[in-house]
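batch job 7 of whatever, protein = Copper chaperone CopZ
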Amino acid sequence: MTSPTDTQGSVTTVYKVSGMSCGHCEGAVSGEISEIPGVSSVKAIASTGEVTVVSAAPLDEAAVRAAVDEAGFELVGEA
């Protein structure tokens, strides 16, 4: 598991999400996570199940889990 890394006033965290299989899945997950306050960028990759999130501060995992659930997928944890 990777822990969040601080870079120039932002935090990058890689999460593992199960169930993503296509670009539409990536968009759904990215869209929901990007609505969390403080998130500046989200990159979901269906083939690996990894979602890289850049935010101003470490995110509450419950908020990320809720966003992933809202998109119809399951947060497995940090990659």
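notes: The chain has one domain: 11-73.
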